[in-house]
Amino acid sequence: MAVRKPPITTREYWAPGHAACAGCGPAIVMKLATKAFSEAMEEKYGDPNAFAIAHATGCMEVVSAVFPYTAWKAPWIHVAFENAAAAASGVEAAWKKLGRKGKILAIGGDGGTADIGLQALSGMLERRHNVVYLMYDNEAYMNTGIQRSSSTPYGAWTTTSPPGKYSIGEDKPKKWVALIAAAHQAPYVATASIGDPYDFYRKMKKAASVDGPAFVQVLAPCVPGWRIPSEKTVEIARLAIESGLWPLFEIENGDFYNIKFQRFPKDGKFKKPIEDYLKIQGRFKHLFKRPEAIQELKNQIKEVWRILGKEVELP
Hints:
- The chain has one domain: Thiamin diphosphate (ThDP)-binding fold, Pyr/PP domains (Rossmann fold, 3-Layer(aba) Sandwich).
- It has eleven helices and ten strands.
- The strands form two sheets. An eight-stranded mixed sheet has the order 2-1-3-4-8-7-9-10, sandwiched between helices. A two-stranded antiparallel sheet has the order 5-6.
């Protein structure tokens, strides 16, 4: 049976001519996310432009706003690394006071979200602001030189977690911010990947449509940071799903007993080996000399699935 693909609006809020790398995963995220948001605003309020963006410092802020130019075709404010959620909360409160209809989109990378922006995100979710927080997860501080973040996966090379005689690279498990957001009983929390753009588009529309706060964590490969060919970005993001490394799920109102999964095999057996995902990326090449590290990564992934209530087999 053919999968029904949702239509994607032709409206553009992310202009060409920005300074992102060829094949940039987060740039794809910006394009799709703003399109989905505008479509949701049109359906909910009759106005596709009924949204504004609060954007943390990071890759996408830098490449999209090189003075005196901007790639944004929507109201957009650049704030510090740590306070996109706080700034979005303030804009949302002002809109509410003014009686203005619409929703605020907060954007941050994994460093500005999982690490130094986590407190502001928690406050935004707890106070129930009508904001969607979009975390584009390229799994390191790419904007400042590829330093590790708490969202960097086990075994990955970064400039601050280099592999060597006594190191396998990043030696800590990945922090799943989506699970932290869901623990706030937010109305809607989801994970997504540019490896399945239609699923991501649908989830962004849903996040924008709910009343109250929502959170979406999307996998967005970085060409220089992951040491990958620019034409392999979407393929790698798709392999993350197909190997079981990146779970796709939705959690509504903190209900961990009724998680909705996407692209999950009925028998719990993923067909693509994680090695297929790892071998394309220079940041993992050293792991093939350390098979025990690859096994540890698999164990950590299986544990994430167990927390989500699923037993899986990884080839």
